[in-house]
Amino acid sequence: MEVTEVRIKLIEEGSDRLKAFCSITFDHCFVIRDLKIIEGTRGPFVAMPSRKLTSHCPTCRNKNHLRAGFCNQCGSELDRDRIDRDEEGRAKLHADIAHPINSVCREMIQSRVVEEFHREIEKSKLPGYISRYDDIDLDPPEPHFDTNHRMMPQTEERGFGKGIL
Ligand SMILES: [Zn+2]
Fold first, then answer.
1. Predicted local distance difference test score (pLDDT) of residue 16
2. How far, in Å, from the CA of 52 to the mean position of ligand 1?
3. How many domains are there within the chain?
């Protein structure tokens, strides 16, 4: 299995350790989106897409976020010991949706994404740079409207010249 494409959306300066979102394609046929590139103490690393963990209220069974002290539905006080912790005592509040199951695969994805991340930073310094990350959703392209609510030709949106309308 091979990572055949990486698309990156850089986050503007000023945000914290989150440097970019990205998607990866395996073998030209399977895409995983919403990976994050995070600046760590030993350089950038890749975080897999994840979801927030929840737990059920013992009284009414409503799902609550793990940090909630009280149930959103019935107001019962929730057990603060319900949060799992890792070896270093950090709260486990998220679970990966998709992730590699061995270090060879993790390293393969990580090195490819970080390489593309550095390349993307260089590309972003060039005039006319556009991130390709969001393009995945543009199939078919959305009709584009100008301020007078008229349809505009696609060339206008892409900046290749003035529209004809
Ligand atoms: Zn409840």
1. 82
2. 18
3. 3
